[in-house]
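Revision sheet: structure tokens.
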Amino acid sequence: MRRGKNNGSSFVLLGIFALIVGGAFYVYSSAMFEREIPVISMQKNGYWNLKNPLEIAINDASGLKSFKVTLKSSTEETVLYHEQFMVSKESINIKVEPPKSAYVMKDKEIKIIVEATDGSKWNFFKGNSTAVESKYIIDKKRPQLNIIANSYKIGKGGAALVIFKAEDENLKEIYIETNFGKKFLAQPFYKNGYFISLVAWPIIEENFKATVVAVDHAQNSAQVYVPLFLQNKIYNVSNIKISDSFLKGKIAELAEEFDETQGVLNPIEQFKVINEKVREKNEKLIHDITSKVPTGMVSDFSMNEMYPLRNGAVVAHFGDHRIYSYEDKTVSEAYHMGVDLASNAMAEIRPQNGGEVVYAGYNGLYGNMPIIHHGLGLYTLFGHCSTLNVHEGDFVQPGAHIASTGKSGYAMGDHLHFGVLVQGIEVRPAEWMDRSWMKLNITDVINSAKEIMDKG
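Predicted:
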């Protein structure tokens, strides 16, 4: 009889134990009792100008129950946000505006504390809670900007030089912004706090405007307009009729070479693909390479007038807008972004300025092509070469025999395609081949700026 009672008690205990284990398993595995804390995303340990709002994002899979944002200074704590939700939300995005008292705050550093609790039943139905604290350096002062010297004018398709001073203890970035979206980067120049940059006006843009912009880590910004006289220039338009012999000759030859024309059988379509798609690919390579600007200090910058082909005659000009037609129908167009020079076959190419070879290889329509960087984001390009005497990474001296002319790529005869680029923008080689232009727009501007800087 006693044994029966013991058996009954054992079954009861086993049942209770099973309920406990089952309940524990349910709590452990149930989504209602999840244990993941909310995720708080915000800029950490940065700068704040007390003008732009701080952006904070809070996420939790089980839904948020409440959150609070507190500003803590050396003298007080101010609750900026405190909200509880009747219906939980999986995510919230808030923009924290500074309190009115912050504008007279003298603290150089404050803390922002973000607390959040989710709707989980974990922690005795209190939910999962977390807090993130970030320090911010208060910076309400915008950078100081002054233009020291600049070229008097810029022509369409041409270049100009700008030297300016930018001061801010928390300076983050400086650049020269244009009306067409291009940002020209500036390098430190001569003394701390001074910067220099070349700018360029693309021939396809009808207008030009340049503004120096300085931004600090707190997103305070300053802008100064660059006072350049704009000189318009009309470039030639050439209407070129495509012949059948041209299609069966040079175009058929190139069509066998490029991946883009494989499977394209129509000669006119081959021409269109070569003149547009292949050209775009080749020019992208050039623009990517020549858009790079060093970040080191520039103590000086001087250039000799450029004329890389001795006794070379100009056979095609920069900026020529070429419109191609076949059987009286326009089929394609392109801009000639350099100057073509020709003398005798396989003539020696000897640039008057040294620099670093940043590319030396075959580039489609441009054929064998070296590119040299001379500093300040100024590059020279030499297309259609027969042979190359330099390699990428070489540093060449003025007058070095870097290559010989030829007819590689999209060339009808032996010549040099000579291009000049400023931070990825093609500019008129004629300016850089003119000693007077270079003195007035480059050398004199630098010397004038140095005089002002030395006096200051």
